[in-house]
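Handout, section B. The chain below has 174 residues.
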Amino acid sequence: LEKKTRFGRQVQGALWVSREWETLRALSDAGLPVPRPIARTEDAILMGYVGDLELAAPQLRSVRPDAVEARDLFDQVLRAIERMLYVNVIHGDLSAYNLLVWDGRVTVIDLPQAIDPRKNRHAHALLERDVRRICEHFQRFGVRSSPDRLAADLWTAWQFADLVPEELRTGIEM
């Protein structure tokens, strides 16, 4: 890997595919809005398609929502970020390029660089960057937010295990 030989690049590519596959499976199993992972090889992942027979879902960056739609999409993205933390995943490169929109629903894509916040010393900074990018994108459509506060609240809730999904709270003594 260090010498960047052809073999090293093949190993690195296989590691990225494997990591993205495992992340997609964990997020899909947890009911998060990600493409359903179907199969994989060392080189690629086959996943569910987002769109219809004539058109693939556009990236969020290409969508021009009105104020109400923008707020709804923003809330969906923040909920996805929060729910990803439930299963110890931070996207690490989240932006309007890594989100698809179809029928008013957001789908998170492009996860090979996702990290486990329990195992990465840069997790807090990566979460802050993800939240900041999303807030900045939606600000253009009139959605006002405080990225620093949102990221801090998410991080604190995760650290103190307050991010228990509503559907799991039933039967759990709090």
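Note. The chain is about 45% helix and 10% strand. Compare this with the example in section A.
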